[in-house]
Amino acid sequence: MSAIFKMNLRCGRQGDLQGIFIADKQEVDNLITSKKEIYFGEVLGKHSEVVAYLTHDEIKMVSDNPSVVGLFQELNMQCGYNPFSYIEEDGE
After folding, report:
1. 91 in a structural domain
2. Lowest CB count within 10 Å: 7, 43, 73, 74, which one?
3. Confidence band (pLDDT; 50, 70, 90) for 47?
4. What's the total number of domains in the chain?
């Protein structure tokens, strides 16, 4: 089941990465429990090299109400960073 999630990843003195996006609840749980590497690259400036393994403290479900999720998607309200766009697959 899809839900709206909010990510807030603290990267020390370099800054923070934030995003709000729609994802499947099971996929988010798998991302956290598998400790899959997420490579954001140099998104916080030259030589920043942001690599993360998300925890439950860094990604929270906002709503799984189907009407809210549908409206969020219809209005294209996703913004910021979606960690699923930065997952490094084996062999890349």
Report:
1. no
2. 74
3. confident
4. 1
